[in-house]
Write a structure and sequence with these properties.
Order of helices and strands: EEEHEHEHEEH
Largest sheet: 7 strands, mixed
Shape: globular
Helix content: 25-40%
Strand order of the largest sheet: 1-2-3-5-4-6-7
Oligomer: single chain
Structural class: alpha+beta
Number of strands: 7
Low-confidence stretches: 1-26, 29-36
Length: 133
Amino acid sequence: MAIAALARPSSIVLLTVTRQRQRPRWVFTPLASLSSSSSRKLVLYSKPGCCLCDGLKEKLQAAFLLSGPDSLHDVDLQIRDITSNPEWEKAYQYEIPVLAKLLSDGTEETLPRLSPRLGVELIQKKIAAALKQ
């Protein structure tokens, strides 16, 4: 397992690469949530070479850096490569990128699709609102 850390204005993000079937999977975890169990968790289903996925990843990364009332600093984001799991690939091959929130019982709730045209601030607000529900 490889681990790297990125500096952010108010915290540090831990990037962990785990291997499943020889494909890396990045997990973005704010270090603040490592000491306490975060109840706000997101999963992004993606795959290599998906330009919409890459665009959303960039906007999510920027949204995680924003502060304010809709801050996402305490949210864990796991990025799952659908090509590493046949069930994910079958479920999401025509839908990616798919963003879902992980519920306390371990199930996932798919969030409404975020338009690639949305700005970072609006993405932050929409995700924060979805996580409050």
